[in-house]
Design goal:
TIM Barrel, 2 domains, four-stranded parallel sheet, 13 helices, globular
């Protein structure tokens, strides 16, 4: 009696393997979702494979989100600009803990339905620990620290973040600075000392022109924003350079870095960051950028510098959905010159590498368990590959 083959064979019009779009190939994997091999057209019989029209790709990686802000969905108007947005977020954070918990659970479930297998998540509190402890999504948590440039209060702020950091126990995590405009030199030093050498750190970067203006000449809206909380900015001295140089001066290049948003980042800034730390990744959240500021980064500058770009969703406060596929669509809509397979690499392998999860996620390589997604509305036309605006994700495993 013949023993049934425990492996499953899928073929499609196109398979994205993590780096390249392949045509006429098949994917072999076992019942646990572990990849066995990729077969070219002459290595399998189509009658032995399940045919799924369109595209098969690895599970998506959401390199930047704020799961704990999920309860704010629809409560902050689009198009306000970053500083009014931040004020609104602060005013809406304290609500019924049960409501926060329900929203976190729903957001985690939404990401799983949308084909997300791994996520880099910003946390200021303990609220997401229960979900992250049992979710099928693997999270790397960035415990976010800020003191609004109050050096004399850095120790007090730091103790609170250290308690949150310790509460996450064995879950993958690091202590990370929020943004250049919100972290004093003293707090930066404490963050540096808190993280082991192998840590991955995240920082919001150059999301709005006010951030660069603060460091260039002290203008823009951030001084008033900070003073609005009752804190003085009289001690602040502009550096005469864009904000990212202050961040680099107070971080150590031994850490893998995620720079997030980068909406106003100049090509020279990108080059400087990569010279300082080649293990830097640049996370874009296109729909959140449109939601808050109605603008996108200049992706060509990142491509020209051979920078590794990843995709994130930000939070439901600043986005309509938690879908990496929707982020891909937005990039392709506004930057049609970027090859489709490159944007899919941002969404898969680059994100996995950025979060230190490339050993199992991001690509179809033997031994990995990256998740397998099917996107039916994907085709090759005379003018190139087309991802239909109505395309949806179906999770195979």
């Amino acid at each position: 009696m013949a023993i049934p083959n425990p492996n499953r064979i899928l073929c499609s019009d196109h398979i994205f393997d993590g780096r390249n779009l392949l045509e006429g190939h098949a994917l072999v994997f076992d019942t646990q979702g572990q990849i066995i091999e990729l077969l070219s057209g002459d290595q399998f019989q189509k009658s032995d494979a399940e045919y799924l029209p369109g595209l098969i790709c690895p599970g998506f990686v959401n390199a930047h989100g704020h799961l704990e802000l999920s309860h704010m969905k629809g409560r902050v108007n689009a198009g306000t600009g970053l500083i009014p947005f931040l004020k609104a977020v602060v005013s809406l954070r304290e609500v019924d803990p049960a409501e926060i918990e329900r929203a976190i659970i729903a957001a985690d479930e939404e990401m799983w339905r949308e084909g997300i297998v791994a996520a880099g998540d910003i946390s200021n509190k303990r609220d997401t620990i229960p979900v992250k402890s049992k979710s099928p999504i693997r999270y790397f948590t960035f415990i976010e620290a800020f003191d609004l440039w109050q050096d004399t209060m850095a120790e007090t702020f730091y103790k609170g973040y250290q308690e949150v950091y310790e509460a996450y126990g064995d879950l993958p995590k690091s202590l990370s600075p929020h943004a250049p405009y919100s972290v004093s030199p003293t707090l930066f030093e404490k963050i540096k000392m808190a993280n082991p050498q192998a840590s991955i750190l995240s920082i919001h970067n150059q999301e709005v022109s006010d951030e660069n203006l603060l460091f260039l000449d002290g203008s823009g809206g951030f001084k008033d924003f900070i003073q609005g909380f009752g804190f003085s900015m009289d001690h602040f001295k502009p550096t005469g350079r864009n904000s990212v140089y202050y961040a680099m001066a107070h971080l150590e290049p031994k850490h893998q870095m995620l720079f997030v948003h980068n909406t106003l980042m100049a090509r020279e800034d990108i080059r400087s960051v990569l010279n300082w730390n080649p293990r830097s990744y640049f996370v874009s959240c296109p729909n959140a950028n449109l939601y808050i500021e109605n603008r996108l980064p200049r992706y060509e500058d990142f491509r020209n510098e051979k920078a590794k770009v990843c995709l994130g969703t930000d939070s439901l406060t600043s986005n309509w959905r938690l879908s990496i596929l929707e982020e891909i669509k937005t990039v392709l809509k506004y930057q049609a010159s970027i090859p489709v397979e490159e944007v899919f690499q941002w969404a898969c392998l680059n994100g996995a590498e950025a979060l230190g999860m490339e050993a199992w996620a991001g690509s179809f390589e033997p031994g990995k368990k990256p998740g397998i997604l099917w996107i039916q509305e994907f085709s090759k036309q005379p003018n190139g590959f087309i991802l239909d605006s109505k395309a949806q994700v179906k999770r195979i495993i």
